[in-house]
Specification:
heterodimer, A: 12 helices, elongated, B: 118 residues, five-stranded mixed sheet
Chain lengths: 320, 118
């Protein structure tokens, strides 16, 4: 049908993202080879793919239709497939049934397709299991009908089963990764919330840091701090690290750079709440704290900040 | 394009308008040295808000300007260093040690006023 964008069009855009996705997923070549080895998927299987493809090709549409029908038409079925998604599914299983190689290109293309499927249809694991099972059974039926030789049919079916399981594995990888992505995004959001920049008075900002401070959070912290100095006209910033259990040299150096950068913007940074452990780490690392004002606790830090701002907190006049 | 130097409240204000070449930086240093030498100046404020980059040459020049100004008994303040620029400078070890800094022109002038009245 002309005019309707095919899965191939969308896939082309995605192939460039696939390499990045694979790296993020940690799906290395080694991992793929290992998986094939576990499944017993080897060159003899690959050699058979072409033959399988030729046998299957004339029946592919009917097979795919039977999958889609089986999954879509039961009224109580949780696997409702919209009409517009049928084409997507056709392309999905057609690409699987007509491949003649199992190399990187195949894997990348399959990952891209699952990603597209996740985006458009968002099936869950149950759906994948059901769909693949239907595919395998339907193909198996066709194969038996085609061939008079039961042994050859068995061999071909074995190859098909391995291929199907391999592909199912990729699908579940992408699915799990997608779920992980959501969790990671939420985690990032949470981290951002956990380093709020609070304004105590005009010119006085406080940043309480809670939890593990790694290089990435430290970077994010710096950005937030420097931007806050600019937006809220901070003159003194109190960085409270009471809630930080430990730091490594990278983070420690980063914190010092942050203090220096704040100074370049006309703000003085005071670090409060350095625990004995963190203090020991800093000393041990030979980190140069000459330019950094440190105060034991937050209260002390605020008092020092007030002093720098030329402010003094005095008791209110007793009411007469 | 020469950096315009304005006079206000006994202060010299150099407002950088554009990225500065090495030659323009040297020129600024020269003119400020002359003006600080010729008249009584309370302070010099250099506004670098528009600069995306402050490299080692610029840092050295700003430092030199500050030293020259201070030798004449005046305050020198660099204002308007942007967050990204500040962090990049620090990563390269360009910390402008010993040079007063402030967030913007307002704060810079306030700093000069405060320094003048102990």
């Amino acid at each position: 049908m002309a005019g309707i964008p095919t899965q191939e069009d969308a896939m082309y855009d995605q192939l460039s993202d696939v390499a990045a996705m694979r790296e993020e997923m940690g799906l290395s070549k080694r991992e793929i080879e290992q998986r094939k080895s576990w499944l017993g998927l080897d060159d003899t299987d690959e050699a058979k793919l072409g033959r399988i493809g030729r046998i299957v090709e004339p029946h592919l549409e009917a097979i795919i239709d039977s999958i889609v029908d089986a999954l879509a038409e039961e009224n109580d079925s949780p696997f409702r497939i919209q009409h517009r998604d049928r084409q997507l599914l056709r392309d999905y299983f057609r690409a699987l049934g007509s491949t003649d190689g199992l190399g990187d290109d195949f894997v990348d293309a399959r990952l891209a397709m699952v990603d597209a499927l996740q985006e458009r249809v968002a099936p869950d694991v149950s759906w994948y299991l059901a769909a693949y099972l239907h595919y395998l059974l339907a193909l198996g039926r066709r194969l038996r009908e085609e061939s008079a030789d039961p042994e050859a049919t068995q061999a071909v079916h074995r190859t098909l089963a391995k291929l199907t399981f391999f592909d199912l594995g990729l699908a579940i990888d992408v699915y799990a990764f997608g779920r992980g992505r959501t969790i990671r995004a939420q985690q990032r959001e949470l981290e951002e919330l956990s380093t709020p920049v609070l304004q105590l008075r005009d010119g006085l900002l406080i940043i309480p840091i809670i939890g593990m401070l790694d290089a990435r959070r430290a970077q994010q912290l710096t950005e937030q701090l420097l931007q806050a100095i600019r937006r809220r006209r901070g003159k003194v910033v109190v960085l409270d690290v009471t809630g930080v259990a430990a730091v490594d040299s990278r983070v420690a150096n980063h914190l010092i750079q942050t203090v220096d950068a704040a100074r370049l913007m006309g703000a003085t940074a005071i670090v409060t709440g350095v625990s004995p452990e963190v203090a020991q780490t800093l000393v041990g690392l030979g980190v140069d704290l000459a330019n950094v004002t440190t105060v034991a606790d937050l209260q002390g830090g605020i008092d020092e900040a007030d002093r720098l701002l030329g402010l003094k907190v005095v008791p209110a006049e007793p009411t007469p | 394009m020469k950096v315009p130097i304005l006079r206000q409240d006994g202060c010299l204000i150099a407002a950088v308008q554009d990225a500065l070449s090495d030659a323009e930086l040297r020129d600024l240093q020269q003119r400020l040295a002359e003006q600080v030498g010729d008249t009584v100046v309370r302070g010099v404020v250099i506004d670098v808000t528009v600069l995306d980059v402050i490299d080692s040459f610029a840092t050295r020049t700003l430092s030199t300007i500050a030293s020259t100004v201070k030798l004449r008994g005046a305050e020198a303040v660099i204002v308007g260093i942007q967050p990204d620029v500040a962090f990049a400078m620090v990563q390269l070890g360009l910390a402008l040690d010993g040079v007063s800094t402030a967030l913007d022109l307002d704060e810079g002038l306030a700093l000069v006023r405060e320094a003048g009245s102990p």
